């Protein structure tokens, strides 16, 4: 009870209210105690149920793993075998589905790579066609270029102030050797 003023306790009407409040509080406390007892009992019961359930699940897991089979009867073993067969069929079905999906993705990638390869081949062929007209033109330029010699050079003999070309200057048989005289001012640059 909380502290109150002295004037609250002086009248009879206040006393009645105090008693009513006391009865309410005491009945509320009794209800709370009863609720606590019930809830504690229900929690204990719930805990026992969960514990039993966990034990059953652990036992089943051991059975599925092929352990602790001695305690099972023939009927229980047959039931376990049926469950395992069913689980194995589901497992294989899922595995096959995943393999087919994987194969399908690989085939799509292969097809995409083949298409990309074909596109690149077409680009290479187009580039070759574009560059093909330039090649004969370059060959003609090279033929007319002074750097490319059409006939082999003939050796020169240097005697004194005169260079002489030795060998045939033409393709005709019976032509005599021609002597080419080079002025002496050109000899100074060569030597």
Automatic annotation (TrEMBL):
Pfam families: K-box. It comes from the Eukaryota. One of its GO terms (molecular function) is DNA-binding transcription factor activity. Residues 74-130 form a coiled coil. GO terms for cellular component: nucleus. Residues 168-191 are annotated as: Disordered. Keywords: Coiled coil. The keyword Coiled coil applies. Residues 40-130 form the K-box domain. This is FRUITFULL 2 MADS-box transcription factor.
